[in-house]
Amino acid sequence: MKSNLKIGIALSGGGVRGISHLGVLKALTESGIYPTKVSGTSAGAIVGAMFCQGYTPEEILKIIVETNYFKFLRPAISLTGFLKMDSVGNLFKLYLDHNDFSKLQIPLTVAATDIKKAKVRYYSEGELIRPIMASSCIPGMFDPIVIGKRYLVDGGVLNNMPVEPLEGVTDYVIGVHCNQLPEESNVSNMKKLIERSVIMAMNYNVYTRKSKCDYFIEPPGLGRYGVFDIKKASELFGVGYDYTMNYIENNPSILELATKSNKSSIA
């Protein structure tokens, strides 16, 4: 059905937990809800770019499972990070070979953090791959990505669910968050303490944006998965899919978007 209704989807960061976004997208599209614009941070930027390129959620999952992501990392000889992300660009070029925002089937915006200016930077035009790398550049672990004169790190530092690029240009905003933390009775070591504290801070900047969303999808229990636990990829996909199908059943008004949206707009 042809319509001018515009639907935006904002995808949060969350490491490997971002694979749950694929299950969410599968459930939404199966229900006839197709985004006309996508925004994302970190893992959400990566998933968003692949989805906007035209890969199905199942195809993206297969690529993630079959690709040894970490072989593209190499030690960084610097004082700003342990690893360099430059060679990760070679991986993205296999699947985003045009390296151009304008060549995506669906418009995409990715968020990164300008570490010198302490500001969020949004990228939606020009070269594609380096902004994606910047958006997922974990500070302290990776060297910052330099674009122009800006030194950029993970967008989740300041905006882990970028709804702002969707405001005023879409009729409805669907926020998708993959970093919900369970209650913890005992933080047993320093590693867990630091990881939990960082995620709590990132979650705060997500929840302050929740009111900007018409629908907010947050599959529970994802906090029990490690940030780099790629072996759980299929399970994470299933959690996102099952929860979203249940969410749609319990929030039937979201299906009004399906009757008004236009699948042909992304073909």
TrEMBL record:
GO terms for molecular function: hydrolase activity. The active site is at S42 (nucleophile), D154 (proton acceptor). Residues 9-167 form the PNPLA domain. A motif (GXGXXG) lies at residues 13-18. A motif (DGA/G) lies at residues 154-156. GO terms for biological process: lipid catabolic process. It holds the Pfam family Patatin. InterPro entries: Acyl_Trfase/lysoPLipase (IPR016035), NTE (IPR050301), PNPLA_dom (IPR002641). A motif (GXSXG) lies at residues 40-44. Keywords: Hydrolase, Lipid degradation, Lipid metabolism. Gene3D superfamilies: Cytosolic phospholipase A2 catalytic domain (3.40.1090.10). PROSITE patterns: PNPLA (PS51635). PANTHER family: NEUROPATHY TARGET ESTERASE/SWISS CHEESE D.MELANOGASTER, SLR0060 PROTEIN. This is NTE family protein. It comes from Algoriphagus aquimarinus.
